[in-house]
Amino acid sequence: MTHTRIKELLNSTEYGREVIVKGWIKTFRNNQFLALNDGSCLSNIQVVVDFESTDESILKRLTTGAAVAISGTFIASLGKGQRVEVKAHQITILGDSDPEKFPLQPKKHSLEFLREIAHLRFRTNTFNAVFKVRNALSFAIHRFFNEKGFVLIHTPIITGSDAEGAGEMFKVTTLDFDKIPQNEDGSINFKEDFFGKPTNLTVSGQLEGELAALAFGNIYTFGPTFRAENSNTTRHLAEFWMIEPEMAFYELKDNMDLAEELLKYVIRYALDNCTEEIEFLKNRLLEEEKSKPQNDRSALDLVDKLNFCLDNDFERLTYTEAIDILKHSKPNQKKQFKYIIEDWGADLQSEHERYLVEKHFKKPVILTDYPAAIKAFYMRMNEPDQQGRKTVAAMDILFPGIGEIVGGAQREERYDLLTQRMTEMHIPTEEMEWFLDTRRFGSVPHAGFGLGFERLVLFVTGMTNIRDVIPFPRTPKNAEF
Amino acid sequence: MTHTRIKELLNSTEYGREVIVKGWIKTFRNNQFLALNDGSCLSNIQVVVDFESTDESILKRLTTGAAVAISGTFIASLGKGQRVEVKAHQITILGDSDPEKFPLQPKKHSLEFLREIAHLRFRTNTFNAVFKVRNALSFAIHRFFNEKGFVLIHTPIITGSDAEGAGEMFKVTTLDFDKIPQNEDGSINFKEDFFGKPTNLTVSGQLEGELAALAFGNIYTFGPTFRAENSNTTRHLAEFWMIEPEMAFYELKDNMDLAEELLKYVIRYALDNCTEEIEFLKNRLLEEEKSKPQNDRSALDLVDKLNFCLDNDFERLTYTEAIDILKHSKPNQKKQFKYIIEDWGADLQSEHERYLVEKHFKKPVILTDYPAAIKAFYMRMNEPDQQGRKTVAAMDILFPGIGEIVGGAQREERYDLLTQRMTEMHIPTEEMEWFLDTRRFGSVPHAGFGLGFERLVLFVTGMTNIRDVIPFPRTPKNAEF
Fold first, then answer.
1. What per-residue string of b and e applies to A426-464 under the rule 16 or more CB within 10 Å gives b?
2. Domain end: A106, A133, A159, which one?
3. pLDDT of residue A290
4. Is the Cβ–Cβ distance between B353 and B404 less than 8 Å?
5. What is the pLDDT of residue B24?
6. How close does chain B come to A143, measured CA to CA in Å?
7. Hey, is the C-beta of A34 within 8 angstroms of any chain B C-beta?
8. Contact status, residue B194 vs residue A231, Cβ threshold 8 Å
9. What pLDDT is attached to residue A105?
10. Among A residues 183-222, those touching chain B with beta carbons less than 8 Å apart
């Protein structure tokens, strides 16, 4: 007889049948009630042990964290607190767990402590819920794009191109650090390296994605990206996952519409498919916020916050309009911002984004048409405004508690304007001939954006540290497991 | 009015309506018939241009590769060769394509040439078909595991663990090659590196996957993996994608059943959802094989080969049985194998695998229970056979034309046997304490496997060089784009 997963039993009414369940012991009360979990869902099944007929040596081994196989009868529970239970006939210990040594005892552990034992934290309720939601969001993203006929493109992780300048890069090499080969002039002889030239870990699949979009129309990437930046914050990782759709024949408005539709689709999918997990995470957050001053607590609970996102249009406004709001805002006038907004052209800081989203509009915001000077070379140049100020057709989506979750733009499809901008920004066009070819041969208006996957998971799970929504976070001085 | 994708029009019967189509010109015949493609499907739509009412300067710019927007009437075609067409009223050139310079002219290009212009090869029929199939296979994999309640785990790409020994690794670093920091004793001071220690690109997510499986029950990974090996073959890449499911409470037979079910599911999905693409690839292969001697041609065409896989159980046999077959085989006795099979214990070479699959059984084969000496430390030790020979509960799936497409095993869940094996194989247990914890606390029988994604795509597309099924292949001395 094969074993039945606990999720199935908890939804079953086929009482009286003989079953085998396998899983890990969460608790064992009164020498009688085992709470058993097999990871298939958050809830445990209760197993009733007849301690009189069970060997003393077995009873002793029914400790938190131990793995067991139970043969028994599946019945409606007579006790309170659970609908069904398994009356055990036979208990087999699969793997012991020494209660003196197992770090996950049935009590509250801090998230900091659990991060140190990231290899075991999967077994806690919180991380079971977080990674189930992460899984659901990932699937929802693939389903969304599949329904729309987008083609998934696996853009390269190791790249010989470092022209995008999106951030500091990790080097990839097989050179021996003890004897780095040199050319006669003392420079490094990269001919001896694996790829015959310097290579790095990708910071974005966008440029390669554009190549594919200008053939397939609509494409998306979903892969890991890297930043070698010394940012030790709750919102930054050195290794994180991004989703980067790129669409031929899309202009800025189409781009915004798609991004908003995607975000709503995947949030709704998580609400529909992870009801138990999100309910658990809602209560976890309420509990966590009890220790905070009233003012710092969320106005909405997690479920309400997610529903609020679904029920409201994201606020769309230009950078110029945003600057106007910020300049006249209370925290700016009272000099409560760390960076006071004085002039058009200023880069927005996290405090400004949060003010717009959390205080002013109280909902997700899409900011568009940023000053050209603070945005990347590949964004499409707008007509200068009446005051002659240059902006690009960029759009960033800002979420409450998260800040920027999506960054995108209509791309500069005009060869002359693109190369002129690259020259101005000191980007070597000769290394980017392959990219420029898309503007030489059948160039079309197109647009795309990048969605930071971990930031999305942060938002939907209500967790507050990005290290807690990826299995094994990579941050400065930390690459454990 | 927004534009309509060509795939939709080709399936439509709503004649007489006004439409806008946008895409790239494949050909322009007789100053009258445009074949237009927007990447949404392999087929082009025919656009009929009224050359008398069209400006000469526009007509001249209707060249292969140019991008256009067409306003026109969608009608049933009167001509032969197409069911529907668009009668153009207005033609807008979106992006020119100089016929003197555009490398993709409407003629047959070699795959080698197209590899050099990988940024443009997406626009050919062959690569449109290949990457559509790749996309469908990827989605099918996610759907398969989602339906079964598996949890996707993103295992780390940058790893501080190099213990698995699955192959040569790429180093990841932010150290300055011009001045590698040294300790007083002359060794490299990795404290100055980004992660404070040496790090590499992952060769497999399996070990981290096991951690998650021993909490969630059933998990899978789908991510890039790396080998810094100097293999310039048609089956090896330095960067490739792997799917690695890992299942608690699974034994070897469950593992084989799941792998066979997965492979059949995704092949069926591709046949059902990429009918046009696979038909095209079938004909491409038939064409390619015309230049080969009769004996080297495939016995079955691509579609028949895929269906054959679906209709037959994979042949399952032990390594020991396979050695017996190979020893007595004609090529072994006639010394036609490069590596003659003499004794039990020999590692199987590609020629042996191909003989078993392509000549002896003529179908996919699952080989099990390999000699312990030639397999990894984490595979579960079987009871020694009657002659005292030690084997492990491994399984490899071999496919015609591909060789090993899946490698898997039941894992060694017994702490003592595992650590003993690690010591024998000189794997430092102290660096693997996190992995050993899974055997200390609630260890359970479990199993898993790795599926090489590009090899799967090779098989389903009938392509013969692995560089042609990944957008931008990374191989020794090659990291272009």
1. ebeeeebebbbbbbbbbbbbbbbbbbbbbbbbbbbbbbe
2. A106
3. 92
4. yes
5. 98
6. 8
7. no
8. no
9. 87
10. 188, 194-197, 199, 201, 208, 211-212, 214-218
* Residue B370 tokens, joined: 């390999």
Nearest-by-CA chain A residue for B154: A471
For residue A38 the two structure tokens come to 């097999």
Question: What ipTM describes this predicted complex?
Answer: 0.97
pTM for the predicted model, two decimal places: 0.97
**Which residues of chain B are within 8 Å of residue A480 when distances are taken between CB atoms?**
160, 434
Q: Which CATH number do you get for residue B315?
A: 3.30.930.10
Q: pLDDT digits over B335-363, tens only?
A: 999 999 999 999 999 999 999 999 999 99
Mutation pick from B21, B172, B380 vs chain A, by most beta carbons of A within 10 Å, is: B172
The per-residue pLDDT of chain A, averaged, comes to 95
- In this structure, the answer to whether residues A102 and A149 fall within a common structural domain is no
CB-count burial class (<10 Å; 0-12, 13-18, 19+) for B8: middle
Residue B190 lies in a domain: no
Q: Is B152 on the interface with A (CB under 8 A)?
A: yes
Q: Do A31 and A148 fall within a single domain?
A: no
Task: Please report the residues numbered 423 through 452 in chain B whose beta carbons come closer than 8 angstroms to any beta carbon of chain A.
Answer: 434-435, 437-445
Q: Given a cut of 90, is residue B105 above it in pLDDT?
A: no
Across chain B, mean pLDDT equals 95
Taking the Cβ of residue B291 and every Cβ of chain A, the question of whether any pair is shorter than 8 Å is answered with: no
Identify the pLDDT of residue A79: 86
Residue in chain A closest to B211 (alpha carbons) equals A119
Test B174 with A171 for CB contact under 8 angstroms. yes
Q: Above 80 in pLDDT, residue A162?
A: no
Q: Does A297 touch chain B (CB under 8 A)?
A: no
Q: Is residue A180 in some structural domain?
A: no
At B424-442, the pLDDT tens digits run: 999 888 989 999 999 999 9
Q: Left if phi > 0, otherwise alpha if psi is -120 to 50, otherwise beta: which for A81?
A: left
Instruction: Among A67, A119, A131, select the one facing B151 at the smallest CB separation.
Output: A131
State pLDDT tens for residues A423-445: 999 988 898 999 999 999 999 99
Last residue of one domain, picked from the residues A106, A137, A153: A106
User: φ, ψ for residue B421 (rounded to 5)?
Assistant: -65, -40
Same domain, A51 and A142: no
Domain that holds residue A43: 6-106
| CA distances, B367 to each of B206, B250, B252, B362, B382 (Å) | 20, 18, 11, 14, 15
| pLDDT over 80 (residue A271) | yes
Same domain, A363 and A234: yes
**A119 Cβ contact list (under 8 Å, min separation 6):** A481, B208, B211, B434, B435, B437, B438
Q: Does residue A150 share a domain with residue A35?
A: no
Q: Is residue A473 part of a domain?
A: no
Any chain B CB within 8 A of the CB of A158? yes
Q: Is the pLDDT of residue A412 over 90?
A: yes
Query: So what's the pLDDT on residue B162?
Result: 66
Q: Find the CB nearest A123 among B173, B215, B439.
A: B215
CA B195/CA B198 separation, integer angstroms: 7
Same domain assignment for residues A85 and A209? no
Total structural domains in chain A?
Answer: 2
Q: Which CATH number characterizes residue B29's domain?
A: 2.40.50.140
What is the band of B166 on the pLDDT scale with cuts at 50, 70, 90? low
Cα-Cα-Cα-Cα torsion A270, A275, A280, A285, nearest 10 degrees, comes to 50
- Could you say which residues from 10 to 29 on chain B have a Cβ atom under 8 Å away from some Cβ of chain A? 22-25
Q: Are residues A153 and A102 in the same domain?
A: no
Which of B195, B225, B467 to mutate to probe the A interface, most A CBs <10 Å?
B195
Which of B20, B177, B469 best probes binding to A when mutated, by most A CB atoms within 10 angstroms?
B177
d(CA B242, CA B222): 6
Answer yes or no: is pLDDT of B72 > 90. Answer: yes
Q: What is the predicted pLDDT for the residue at A244? A: 98
Q: Residue B339: inside a domain, yes or no? A: yes
- Mean pLDDT over B204-208 rounds to 95
Overall average pLDDT of the B25-40 stretch: 96
Give the mutation candidate from A472, A475, A477, A478 for the B interface (greatest B CB count, under 10 A). A472
Chain B: closest CA distance from residue A387 (Å)? 30
Please indicate, yes or no, whether residues B142 and B74 belong to a single structural domain of this protein. Answer: no
